[in-house]
Amino acid sequence: MELTNTNVRYLLTIYHLSRARLEVSSKDIACSLDVSRASVTSMMGVLTDKQLVAKERYGKVHLTRAGTRLAKALSAQADALARELAPRMGLSGEEAWKAACAAVSELPHRCFPPLSAAELLPA
Prior knowledge:
CATH class: Mainly Alpha
Strand content: 5-15%
Largest sheet: 3 strands, antiparallel
CATH topology: Arc Repressor Mutant, subunit A
Structural class: mainly alpha
Strand order of the largest sheet: 1-3-2
Number of domains: 1
CATH architecture: Orthogonal Bundle
Number of strands: 3
CATH superfamily: Winged helix-like DNA-binding domain superfamily/Winged helix DNA-binding domain
Helix content: 55-70%
Number of helices: 5
Low-confidence stretches: none
């Protein structure tokens, strides 16, 4: 599955927000990424087509099994990089995490974990 760097940033943001609650709102995603809600709606269609997220009524979004597995692996990379960046660059935890996510989103796809056909099936 081919993902753009923007796909990866949205996926990481949804995963990060979902650590506090299972479903996140489009508004929360838009605020976190500093994008419009229309942009979030458009990207949710793309990520839904890729079977990485599911969108519920009233704009609630949650990761699918495949989305969770991929986001968890990418988030581990971003978390490790953020821990290195924060003290080295004098960044806050949130600044370091956002910078790390941007860097992870630029990684070649060979760095992403492969997803099985079973993971892409609806839950």
